[in-house]
Amino acid sequence: MKDLANKLRELNIGSVKENEPLANHTSMKIGGPADILIEPSSIENLRKAVEVIKDSGVEWTVIGRGSNLLVSDKGIEGVVIKLGSGLDDLEIDGTRVTAGGGLSLVNFAITISRKGLSGLEFAGGIPGSIGGAVYMNAGAHGSDISQILEKAMCSLKMALLSGSLTKR
Ligand SMILES: Cc1cc2nc3c(=O)[nH]c(=O)nc-3n(C[C@H](O)[C@H](O)[C@H](O)COP(=O)(O)OP(=O)(O)OC[C@H]3O[C@@H](n4cnc5c(N)ncnc54)[C@H](O)[C@@H]3O)c2cc1C
Asked: Where do the FAD-binding PCMH-type domain residues begin and end (predicted)?
């Protein structure tokens, strides 16, 4: 595991921590250590990291902002990949929006609303990341992500909706 951590550090992919308590990364402030926890600083670095981790044969788990996680005191074996500020880009093209998996859902909903787009009002109070929201199909007030998601890219970026976002 030490070798893998060093290899990831050499690649300069972003933050690499060993034996990192997951309590530092969950809303409930619970959870034992991840053998390695990485926070890639860009989509390219995420790709590089995943290639190296796959080659190593070590198990990996993706998390977002930890708002729906109850992690045991035993922690999570292998590598935990946290999508955060390095993957929080946002592109708006008319009513089509592409957002990084690490972007905060609340910030996303507010930004979209300020740009005069409608369709994400339900998400204004749901904590977590875009990636977590898509994985969990987060919803409230009779609506949910499935109603606006156009596609989720395997690069872990998300393209959201042309159908349901409308100009106000
Ligand atoms: C106070 C509070 C209020 C809440 N209210 C609501 C609500 O109204 N409606 C609602 O639906 N939920 C609600 N939730 C639950 C939570 O906010 C959602 O489930 C949220 O979408 C989780 O996002 P996250 O980034 O925190 O994911 P995490 O908790 O980090 O992860 C959740 C799951 O998603 C997976 N995952 C995360 N990111 C990715 C990714 N990029 N790619 C693949 N898999 C990924 C993880 O492996 C894990 O299985 C609430 C939670 C809290 C604490």
From this structure: 29-168
